[in-house]
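hiii so um. not sure if this is the right channel but i have a protein structure encoded as tokens and i wanna go backwards to a sequence. like what aa goes where. can anyone help
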């Protein structure tokens, strides 16, 4: 029997050409899925959380408010995740108004020139009413408060008790309702919090 016709059927030729295309498409799909998985892991992997003492650190040069709670927030000026943190801070301040004192400290690492920290989200922090924006040269205050990750927030009662320690975003670079912001507002309004710690999503200080 002559098989010449069988070997030259158009659908077989087409299938032969489609195999590399299908293989390439499959590899592309797998690469996209792997990339999305990597991004998701990064987005929801917290940084190193602080383990502060139960009282305002006595060695701190910051002055704690004695008539209202004080929120201290540590930031890396070049951390892209900090923009979302400041968005949440603005909401907290707008809700609490004069019932909350706020410090936003931008860490300037050792070896960086003066003014290096006045980039990135510095101006955004300055635009929030009532927030005291300060430079933390070489991370001195960050170490006193045991802050290691940008976005680390700590809320202290008027008597110096630590009420809350953690992040005020639900993931890296994403603003929106989250447990940290809710805890800060609860602490200001009720003098206590249900959730005392949350993960911190940001770059290393």
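sure thing!! here u go:
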């Amino acid at each position: 029997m002559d098989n010449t016709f069988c070997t030259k059927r158009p659908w077989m030729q087409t299938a032969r050409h489609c195999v590399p295309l299908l293989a390439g498409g499959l590899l592309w799909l797998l690469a996209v899925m792997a990339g999305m998985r990597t991004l998701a892991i990064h987005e929801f992997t917290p940084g190193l959380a602080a383990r502060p003492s139960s009282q305002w650190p006595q060695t701190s040069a910051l002055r704690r408010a004695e008539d209202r709670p004080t929120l201290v927030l540590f930031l890396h000026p070049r951390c892209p995740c900090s923009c979302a943190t400041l968005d949440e801070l603005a909401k907290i301040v707008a809700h609490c108004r004069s019932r909350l004192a706020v410090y936003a400290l931008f860490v300037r690492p050792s070896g960086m020139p003066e003014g290096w920290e006045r980039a990135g989200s510095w101006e955004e922090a300055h635009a929030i009413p009532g927030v005291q924006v300060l430079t933390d040269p070489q991370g001195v205050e960050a170490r006193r408060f045991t802050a290691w990750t940008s976005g680390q927030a700590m809320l202290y009662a008027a008597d110096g008790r630590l009420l809350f320690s953690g992040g005020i975003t639900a993931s890296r670079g994403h603003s929106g309702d989250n447990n940290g912001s809710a805890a800060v507002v609860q602490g200001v309004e009720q003098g206590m919090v249900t959730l005392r710690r949350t993960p911190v999503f940001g770059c290393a200080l």
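oh and The chain is about 35% helix and 15% strand.
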